[in-house]
Design goal:
With 159 residues, this protein is an alpha/beta fold. It has 3 helices and 11 strands; from the N terminus they run H-E-H-E-E-E-H-E-E-E-E-E-E-E.
């Protein structure tokens, strides 16, 4: 019996190795459908979509992540859920082709903002299919949470 107890306690000296780190979109971690609705008020003329790009664990170096629009993901989403969402026209999205967000060293994440200007929806469900692109350093994307769809709605105006 004493030998068994001694064996159990000697096993506690094992060294724990930190597994790899991942980067992901915080909203995607909270929402299994990976979509949410954003209100676009025509009286203001635009909406800022702010999302948080997060690390699983802090690191001692800056991590830069490319931000892209992913029409392939939107197509997969439409097929899976029987929807017909359409990406917002480029002229209404303030997102540079080489858009990036940098998570500073020792921080857990960073916010990124995409401005969408108002336009006539004509009954179409417009969305912003955001995806994480290339990541610097030895950090990998958490694929299941590296994409998110922001769906837009306008308030119903009655007179």
């Amino acid at each position: 019996m004493v030998a068994v107890i001694a064996g159990v306690f000697t096993g506690c000296d094992a060294e724990y190795v930190i597994k790899g780190n991942n980067v992901y979109i915080a909203d995607a971690a909270l929402n299994p459908l990976r979509t949410t609705i954003v209100g676009l008020d025509p009286d203001i003329g635009y909406v800022d979509v702010v999302f948080f790009v997060r690390l699983a664990k802090r690191v001692d170096f800056d991590v830069t992540v490319a931000i892209t629009l992913d029409d392939n993901y939107l197509s997969e989403f439409n097929t899976s859920y029987g929807t017909r969402h359409v990406t917002i026209p480029n002229e209404h999205i303030d997102l540079e082709a080489d858009a990036k967000v940098t998570i500073p060293a020792r921080e857990i994440g960073a916010a990124f903002t995409v401005r969408v200007t108002d336009f006539n929806f004509d009954g179409v469900r417009y969305v912003l299919p955001i995806a994480l692109g290339e990541v610097t350093g030895e950090i990998e994307k958490l694929e299941a949470q590296s994409k998110f769809i922001y769906s837009f709605a306008k308030p119903v105006v009655t007179e």
